[in-house]
Each structure stands twice: as structure tokens, then as C-alpha cells.
Design goal:
Number of strands: 2
Order of helices and strands: HHHEEHHH
Distance between the termini: 70 Å
Number of domains: 1
Largest sheet: 2 strands, antiparallel
Oligomer: single chain
Number of helices: 6
Strand content: under 5%
Length: about 160
């Protein structure tokens, strides 16, 4: 029969793994929710014209005067919590994808620079990368938090 193409082997191995298929379906559902949020959600939480203060602090499953059902309830301003979560998903995915693209572009640029120039420039870039990778990400997060400060008793305005 001959040797099978590597991509075909990858696809076959992927579909043999139930965990991989479940993860892919979950990721596709999350991306689909984020992309089609205006079509799925009953309310845009950022559109002030759609908000009604009379719908504030409704419990989950409540119905508004207009007949809209709030599956997860509403907040203090009458915004649907489920709509807020789905619209927040759009922002989170946008930040994640854009930061990953920026990191890939920045890393590829540094790698190309190190490979093209070579010598001391390559060594310096590699030492900086080694230094950055030597710190655990949780430690970096704690250092940033200590530097910026955190006041858990501060009230939002």
C-alpha cells in the first residue's frame, strides 16, 4: 500500500483519541459562542438602550416585563448575566489570540535577528531568553502584583 501521508496519520490519530475530540468540540463551541454572541444572546450588555433598571437583581430564571428570560439572573444595572459572560468571552478570546500572535511575531523576529547577525548578538538574545524562562510564571505574576500593589478593600467608583 505504501507509506501514508503524515497529515492523514495525524488526523487518524486525532480522531482515535476521545479526549482530543472532546477538547476540539469544546473549543469549537466556545469560539462559536464568542463569534455569534450578538445572534445568541438576548441582550447586548454594552448597549445602554437595551437595559432596564427595573430588571436589576433578578434571580436566575426570571422573566422581564418584555418577556425576556434571564437564565443566570441580572446584575445591579439590569444586565443579563449570561449575555455578559458570553460577551466577556469575546473579549477574553480576542486578548488571548492577539497576545499569542504578538508573542509569535516578536519571538520570530528575535530568532531571525539572532540567526542573521549571529555572534555576540545571538548569544545576548539567548541569555535574555534563558533568563526569562528561568522564572516560573507564577513568580513573575506575584512580582508584578507586588510592584503594582493590590488593595482588596478599595471600592470601585
Amino acid at each position: 500500500k505504501g507509506e501514508e501521508a503524515p497529515f492523514r496519520l495525524l488526523v487518524r490519530a486525532f480522531f482515535r483519541s476521545p479526549a482530543a475530540v472532546a477538547g476540539f468540540v469544546l473549543l469549537a463551541a466556545i469560539i462559536g459562542l464568542a463569534l455569534f454572541a450578538p445572534l445568541i444572546t438576548p441582550q447586548n450588555p454594552y448597549d445602554l438602550n437595551q437595559l432596564d433598571i427595573m430588571d436589576s437583581r433578578l434571580p436566575p430564571g426570571s422573566q422581564s416585563m418584555t418577556g425576556m428570560i434571564f437564565w443566570l439572573g441580572t446584575d445591579d444595572q439590569g444586565r443579563d448575566m449570561l449575555s455578559g459572560i458570553i460577551y466577556g468571552l469575546r473579549i477574553s478570546l480576542g486578548v488571548g489570540v492577539s497576545s499569542a500572535l504578538f508573542a509569535a511575531l516578536f519571538g520570530a523576529s528575535l530568532g531571525l535577528l539572532a540567526a542573521y547577525v549571529g555572534g555576540r548578538t545571538e548569544t545576548a538574545i539567548m541569555r535574555i531568553v534563558d533568563l526569562q524562562l528561568s522564572f516560573p510564571s507564577i513568580l513573575v505574576a506575584l512580582m508584578i502584583l507586588a510592584f503594582l500593589g493590590f488593595d482588596r478593600h478599595r471600592r470601585r467608583q
